[in-house]
Amino acid sequence: MRLTEEQEELRSAVRSLLARHEGPAAWRPLTEQIGVAGLAVPEEYGGAGCGAREVHAVLEELGRTLSPVPYLGSAVLTVQALLASGDKAVCARLLPPLAEGRAVGSLAWAEQGAWDPASIQAEAAPGPDGTWRITGTKEHVLDGTEADVLLVAARTAAGVSLFEVAVDSPGLRRDAVVTMDQTRAQACMMLDAAEGRLIGTDGEGDRVLAHVLNLACAALAAEQVGAAERALELTVAYAKERIQFGRPIGSFQAVKHRLADAYVLVESARSAALGAAFAAAADSPELTRYAAVAKSACSEALSTVAGEMVQLHGGIGITWEHDAHRFLKRGHSAAQLFGPPAWHRHRLSADLGLTVA
Fold it and tell me: 21: helix, coil or strand?
Protein backbone atom coordinates (compact mmCIF):
# COMPACT_ATOMS: atom_id res chain seq x y z
CA MET A 1 0.00 0.00 0.00
CA ARG A 2 1.34 3.38 -1.02
CA LEU A 3 0.08 6.93 -0.98
CA THR A 4 -0.58 8.55 -4.34
CA GLU A 5 1.66 11.17 -5.88
CA GLU A 6 -0.80 13.89 -4.87
CA GLN A 7 -0.85 12.64 -1.28
CA GLU A 8 2.95 12.61 -1.17
CA GLU A 9 2.94 16.18 -2.48
CA LEU A 10 0.61 17.10 0.36
CA ARG A 11 3.05 15.53 2.79
CA SER A 12 5.94 17.52 1.30
CA ALA A 13 3.97 20.75 1.53
CA VAL A 14 3.18 20.16 5.20
CA ARG A 15 6.80 19.26 5.98
CA SER A 16 8.08 22.36 4.23
CA LEU A 17 5.63 24.61 6.08
CA LEU A 18 6.44 23.07 9.47
CA ALA A 19 10.12 23.74 8.81
CA ARG A 20 9.28 27.46 8.60
CA HIS A 21 6.63 27.69 11.32
CA GLU A 22 7.02 26.08 14.73
CA GLY A 23 4.66 25.41 17.61
CA PRO A 24 1.08 26.72 17.80
CA ALA A 25 1.94 29.44 15.26
CA ALA A 26 1.88 26.78 12.52
CA TRP A 27 -1.90 26.35 12.73
CA ARG A 28 -2.88 29.45 10.79
CA PRO A 29 -0.57 28.85 7.80
CA LEU A 30 -1.47 25.15 7.80
CA THR A 31 -5.14 26.03 7.48
CA GLU A 32 -4.86 29.10 5.28
CA GLN A 33 -2.09 27.98 2.89
CA ILE A 34 -2.69 24.22 2.72
CA GLY A 35 -6.23 23.85 4.04
CA VAL A 36 -5.47 20.93 6.35
CA ALA A 37 -8.47 21.60 8.61
CA GLY A 38 -10.92 20.92 5.80
CA LEU A 39 -9.25 17.97 4.10
CA ALA A 40 -11.77 15.40 5.37
CA VAL A 41 -14.78 17.75 5.17
CA PRO A 42 -17.10 17.17 2.17
CA GLU A 43 -17.14 19.87 -0.47
CA GLU A 44 -20.77 20.71 0.28
CA TYR A 45 -19.62 21.98 3.70
CA GLY A 46 -16.65 23.95 2.40
CA GLY A 47 -14.01 21.25 2.62
CA ALA A 48 -11.72 19.50 0.15
CA GLY A 49 -13.65 16.23 0.15
CA CYS A 50 -10.57 14.10 0.76
CA GLY A 51 -10.28 11.17 3.13
CA ALA A 52 -8.27 9.16 5.64
CA ARG A 53 -5.18 8.80 3.45
CA GLU A 54 -4.72 12.56 3.20
CA VAL A 55 -5.25 12.81 6.95
CA HIS A 56 -2.60 10.11 7.36
CA ALA A 57 -0.07 12.12 5.33
CA VAL A 58 -0.67 15.26 7.38
CA LEU A 59 -0.49 13.52 10.74
CA GLU A 60 2.75 11.71 9.94
CA GLU A 61 4.36 15.10 9.40
CA LEU A 62 2.77 16.62 12.51
CA GLY A 63 4.10 13.64 14.45
CA ARG A 64 7.65 14.17 13.19
CA THR A 65 7.72 17.64 14.73
CA LEU A 66 5.55 16.82 17.77
CA SER A 67 3.42 19.73 16.60
CA PRO A 68 0.96 21.09 19.19
CA VAL A 69 -1.60 22.30 16.64
CA PRO A 70 -5.23 21.18 17.26
CA TYR A 71 -5.51 18.99 14.17
CA LEU A 72 -6.34 15.66 15.81
CA GLY A 73 -9.00 17.02 18.15
CA SER A 74 -10.63 19.42 15.71
CA ALA A 75 -10.12 18.19 12.14
CA VAL A 76 -10.45 14.50 13.03
CA LEU A 77 -12.52 13.92 16.19
CA THR A 78 -14.94 16.82 15.95
CA VAL A 79 -15.37 16.75 12.18
CA GLN A 80 -15.90 13.00 12.04
CA ALA A 81 -18.35 13.03 14.95
CA LEU A 82 -20.45 15.65 13.16
CA LEU A 83 -20.39 13.74 9.88
CA ALA A 84 -21.22 10.43 11.57
CA SER A 85 -24.19 12.02 13.34
CA GLY A 86 -25.97 12.49 10.02
CA ASP A 87 -27.38 15.83 11.21
CA LYS A 88 -27.18 17.85 8.00
CA ALA A 89 -28.45 21.09 9.54
CA VAL A 90 -25.82 21.05 12.27
CA CYS A 91 -23.12 20.04 9.79
CA ALA A 92 -24.05 22.93 7.50
CA ARG A 93 -23.71 25.34 10.41
CA LEU A 94 -20.59 24.02 12.18
CA LEU A 95 -18.43 22.38 9.53
CA PRO A 96 -17.62 25.43 7.33
CA PRO A 97 -15.81 27.39 10.08
CA LEU A 98 -14.05 24.21 11.21
CA ALA A 99 -12.98 23.46 7.62
CA GLU A 100 -11.55 26.94 7.19
CA GLY A 101 -9.71 26.81 10.50
CA ARG A 102 -11.64 29.82 11.79
CA ALA A 103 -12.97 27.66 14.61
CA VAL A 104 -11.39 24.88 16.67
CA GLY A 105 -13.56 21.95 17.66
CA SER A 106 -13.36 19.58 20.61
CA LEU A 107 -15.12 16.31 21.44
CA ALA A 108 -15.68 15.70 25.17
CA TRP A 109 -16.01 11.98 25.40
CA ALA A 110 -13.72 10.07 27.79
CA GLU A 111 -14.59 9.51 31.43
CA GLN A 112 -12.41 7.99 34.16
CA GLY A 113 -9.67 7.23 31.63
CA ALA A 114 -11.96 5.18 29.35
CA TRP A 115 -13.04 5.80 25.76
CA ASP A 116 -15.53 2.95 25.70
CA PRO A 117 -19.01 4.47 25.14
CA ALA A 118 -20.34 1.99 27.70
CA SER A 119 -18.32 3.83 30.38
CA ILE A 120 -20.10 7.16 29.83
CA GLN A 121 -21.90 8.27 32.98
CA ALA A 122 -22.61 11.93 32.18
CA GLU A 123 -26.35 12.41 32.03
CA ALA A 124 -28.56 14.58 29.84
CA ALA A 125 -32.09 15.44 30.92
CA PRO A 126 -34.72 17.17 28.74
CA GLY A 127 -34.94 20.92 29.31
CA PRO A 128 -37.13 23.74 27.97
CA ASP A 129 -37.45 24.69 24.30
CA GLY A 130 -36.01 21.42 23.04
CA THR A 131 -32.73 21.84 24.91
CA TRP A 132 -31.09 19.41 27.31
CA ARG A 133 -29.31 19.82 30.64
CA ILE A 134 -26.04 17.91 30.86
CA THR A 135 -24.28 16.97 34.09
CA GLY A 136 -21.02 15.08 34.42
CA THR A 137 -17.23 15.25 34.12
CA LYS A 138 -15.19 14.71 30.97
CA GLU A 139 -11.47 13.96 30.88
CA HIS A 140 -8.69 14.05 28.28
CA VAL A 141 -10.57 16.56 26.13
CA LEU A 142 -8.16 17.51 23.36
CA ASP A 143 -7.78 21.29 22.95
CA GLY A 144 -10.73 21.68 25.31
CA THR A 145 -9.85 25.10 26.71
CA GLU A 146 -9.40 26.78 23.32
CA ALA A 147 -12.31 25.14 21.50
CA ASP A 148 -14.96 27.29 19.85
CA VAL A 149 -17.15 24.28 19.01
CA LEU A 150 -17.79 21.76 21.78
CA LEU A 151 -19.45 18.39 21.35
CA VAL A 152 -20.31 16.37 24.46
CA ALA A 153 -21.34 12.73 24.74
CA ALA A 154 -23.89 12.05 27.48
CA ARG A 155 -26.44 9.41 28.40
CA THR A 156 -30.20 9.89 27.99
CA ALA A 157 -33.11 7.50 28.56
CA ALA A 158 -32.55 6.29 24.98
CA GLY A 159 -28.82 5.69 25.43
CA VAL A 160 -25.62 7.59 24.67
CA SER A 161 -26.24 10.72 22.59
CA LEU A 162 -24.22 13.61 21.19
CA PHE A 163 -24.83 17.24 22.14
CA GLU A 164 -23.57 20.67 21.17
CA VAL A 165 -22.73 22.75 24.24
CA ALA A 166 -21.97 26.46 24.00
CA VAL A 167 -18.46 27.14 25.29
CA ASP A 168 -19.81 30.04 27.36
CA SER A 169 -22.60 28.00 28.94
CA PRO A 170 -23.09 28.99 32.63
CA GLY A 171 -22.97 25.35 33.70
CA LEU A 172 -19.67 24.56 31.96
CA ARG A 173 -16.21 24.74 33.48
CA ARG A 174 -13.10 24.04 31.40
CA ASP A 175 -9.79 23.48 33.19
CA ALA A 176 -6.47 22.95 31.46
CA VAL A 177 -4.70 19.80 32.64
CA VAL A 178 -0.96 19.62 33.26
CA THR A 179 0.09 16.52 31.35
CA MET A 180 3.34 14.63 30.96
CA ASP A 181 3.31 15.43 27.24
CA GLN A 182 3.11 19.22 27.13
CA THR A 183 2.87 19.22 23.34
CA ARG A 184 -0.72 17.95 23.47
CA ALA A 185 -3.22 20.27 25.16
CA GLN A 186 -5.86 18.51 27.22
CA ALA A 187 -8.65 19.71 29.48
CA CYS A 188 -11.00 18.44 32.13
CA MET A 189 -14.59 19.62 31.78
CA MET A 190 -17.20 19.80 34.51
CA LEU A 191 -20.80 20.19 33.41
CA ASP A 192 -23.48 21.15 35.93
CA ALA A 193 -26.81 21.29 34.15
CA ALA A 194 -25.06 22.87 31.16
CA GLU A 195 -27.40 23.58 28.28
CA GLY A 196 -26.94 21.39 25.23
CA ARG A 197 -28.65 20.77 21.93
CA LEU A 198 -29.05 17.28 20.55
CA ILE A 199 -27.02 16.41 17.46
CA GLY A 200 -28.42 13.64 15.28
CA THR A 201 -30.73 11.03 16.77
CA ASP A 202 -31.22 10.48 20.48
CA GLY A 203 -29.54 7.22 21.52
CA GLU A 204 -27.28 6.98 18.43
CA GLY A 205 -24.15 8.10 20.26
CA ASP A 206 -22.81 4.55 20.64
CA ARG A 207 -22.71 4.14 16.88
CA VAL A 208 -21.19 7.57 16.30
CA LEU A 209 -18.46 7.18 18.91
CA ALA A 210 -17.58 3.64 17.82
CA HIS A 211 -16.97 4.95 14.31
CA VAL A 212 -15.03 8.00 15.54
CA LEU A 213 -12.88 5.77 17.77
CA ASN A 214 -11.74 3.74 14.77
CA LEU A 215 -10.94 6.86 12.74
CA ALA A 216 -9.18 8.41 15.74
CA CYS A 217 -7.00 5.32 16.19
CA ALA A 218 -6.08 5.29 12.50
CA ALA A 219 -5.19 8.98 12.63
CA LEU A 220 -3.18 8.72 15.84
CA ALA A 221 -1.30 5.71 14.45
CA ALA A 222 -0.07 7.88 11.56
CA GLU A 223 1.14 10.51 14.00
CA GLN A 224 2.93 7.87 16.07
CA VAL A 225 4.69 6.52 12.97
CA GLY A 226 5.91 10.00 12.07
CA ALA A 227 7.24 10.56 15.58
CA ALA A 228 8.92 7.14 15.71
CA GLU A 229 10.53 7.67 12.31
CA ARG A 230 11.95 11.04 13.36
CA ALA A 231 13.17 9.69 16.69
CA LEU A 232 15.04 6.93 14.86
CA GLU A 233 16.53 9.38 12.33
CA LEU A 234 17.89 11.59 15.11
CA THR A 235 19.30 8.60 16.97
CA VAL A 236 21.04 7.18 13.90
CA ALA A 237 22.56 10.60 13.17
CA TYR A 238 23.83 10.85 16.75
CA ALA A 239 25.27 7.32 16.65
CA LYS A 240 27.35 8.36 13.63
CA GLU A 241 28.67 11.49 15.35
CA ARG A 242 29.24 10.41 18.96
CA ILE A 243 32.78 9.15 19.44
CA GLN A 244 33.56 6.67 22.20
CA PHE A 245 36.75 4.63 22.56
CA GLY A 246 38.05 6.32 19.42
CA ARG A 247 35.18 5.35 17.12
CA PRO A 248 31.54 6.30 16.45
CA ILE A 249 29.18 4.44 18.78
CA GLY A 250 27.13 3.44 15.75
CA SER A 251 30.00 1.17 14.67
CA PHE A 252 29.56 -1.08 17.71
CA GLN A 253 27.64 -4.26 16.98
CA ALA A 254 25.36 -3.94 20.01
CA VAL A 255 24.27 -0.44 18.93
CA LYS A 256 23.74 -1.62 15.35
CA HIS A 257 21.43 -4.38 16.57
CA ARG A 258 19.36 -1.98 18.62
CA LEU A 259 19.01 0.46 15.76
CA ALA A 260 18.11 -2.35 13.35
CA ASP A 261 15.41 -3.57 15.74
CA ALA A 262 14.06 -0.04 16.01
CA TYR A 263 13.96 0.25 12.21
CA VAL A 264 11.91 -2.96 11.97
CA LEU A 265 9.47 -1.59 14.55
CA VAL A 266 9.05 1.67 12.63
CA GLU A 267 8.44 -0.01 9.29
CA SER A 268 6.04 -2.57 10.79
CA ALA A 269 4.14 0.27 12.45
CA ARG A 270 4.02 2.14 9.15
CA SER A 271 2.40 -0.85 7.47
CA ALA A 272 -0.18 -1.12 10.24
CA ALA A 273 -0.98 2.59 10.10
CA LEU A 274 -1.32 2.58 6.32
CA GLY A 275 -3.57 -0.46 6.53
CA ALA A 276 -5.88 1.41 8.90
CA ALA A 277 -5.84 4.53 6.70
CA PHE A 278 -6.74 2.55 3.58
CA ALA A 279 -9.49 0.68 5.45
CA ALA A 280 -10.91 3.97 6.72
CA ALA A 281 -10.76 5.55 3.26
CA ALA A 282 -12.66 2.57 1.81
CA ASP A 283 -15.13 2.49 4.73
CA SER A 284 -14.20 -1.17 5.12
CA PRO A 285 -16.40 -3.38 7.32
CA GLU A 286 -13.13 -4.59 8.86
CA LEU A 287 -12.08 -1.10 9.94
CA THR A 288 -12.32 -1.99 13.64
CA ARG A 289 -9.72 -4.72 13.18
CA TYR A 290 -7.32 -2.52 11.24
CA ALA A 291 -7.72 0.36 13.67
CA ALA A 292 -7.18 -1.84 16.73
CA VAL A 293 -4.05 -3.39 15.21
CA ALA A 294 -2.67 0.02 14.23
CA LYS A 295 -3.29 1.59 17.64
CA SER A 296 -1.67 -1.33 19.45
CA ALA A 297 1.33 -1.75 17.14
CA CYS A 298 2.09 1.94 16.65
CA SER A 299 1.75 2.76 20.35
CA GLU A 300 4.27 0.12 21.31
CA ALA A 301 6.61 1.01 18.44
CA LEU A 302 6.82 4.70 19.36
CA SER A 303 7.26 3.99 23.07
CA THR A 304 10.06 1.52 22.36
CA VAL A 305 11.88 3.65 19.77
CA ALA A 306 11.63 6.76 21.96
CA GLY A 307 13.06 4.78 24.87
CA GLU A 308 15.97 3.68 22.71
CA MET A 309 16.46 7.28 21.63
CA VAL A 310 16.96 8.36 25.23
CA GLN A 311 19.28 5.48 26.09
CA LEU A 312 21.47 5.68 22.99
CA HIS A 313 21.89 9.43 23.41
CA GLY A 314 23.31 8.82 26.87
CA GLY A 315 23.47 11.73 29.31
CA ILE A 316 22.31 14.36 26.83
CA GLY A 317 19.17 12.31 26.19
CA ILE A 318 17.79 13.09 29.65
CA THR A 319 18.42 16.83 29.55
CA TRP A 320 15.59 19.33 29.21
CA GLU A 321 17.24 21.00 26.23
CA HIS A 322 17.33 17.87 24.05
CA ASP A 323 14.25 16.63 22.17
CA ALA A 324 14.64 13.01 23.29
CA HIS A 325 12.52 13.43 26.41
CA ARG A 326 9.76 15.05 24.33
CA PHE A 327 9.53 12.01 22.07
CA LEU A 328 9.50 9.72 25.10
CA LYS A 329 6.69 11.68 26.73
CA ARG A 330 4.68 11.81 23.49
CA GLY A 331 5.17 8.06 23.10
CA HIS A 332 3.86 7.13 26.54
CA SER A 333 1.04 9.68 26.43
CA ALA A 334 -0.15 8.70 22.95
CA ALA A 335 -0.11 5.03 23.93
CA GLN A 336 -2.86 5.76 26.48
CA LEU A 337 -4.86 8.16 24.33
CA PHE A 338 -8.04 6.51 22.98
CA GLY A 339 -7.25 3.45 25.12
CA PRO A 340 -4.06 1.47 25.85
CA PRO A 341 -2.72 -1.23 23.50
CA ALA A 342 -4.09 -4.06 25.67
CA TRP A 343 -7.63 -2.72 25.35
CA HIS A 344 -7.35 -2.53 21.58
CA ARG A 345 -6.06 -6.09 21.44
CA HIS A 346 -9.19 -7.00 23.39
CA ARG A 347 -11.28 -5.12 20.80
CA LEU A 348 -9.51 -7.02 18.03
CA SER A 349 -10.16 -10.36 19.70
CA ALA A 350 -13.82 -9.52 20.23
CA ASP A 351 -14.21 -8.41 16.60
CA LEU A 352 -12.65 -11.68 15.45
CA GLY A 353 -15.02 -13.63 17.68
CA LEU A 354 -12.23 -15.04 19.83
CA THR A 355 -12.66 -15.85 23.51
CA VAL A 356 -10.65 -13.48 25.70
CA ALA A 357 -9.45 -14.87 29.02
Answer: coil
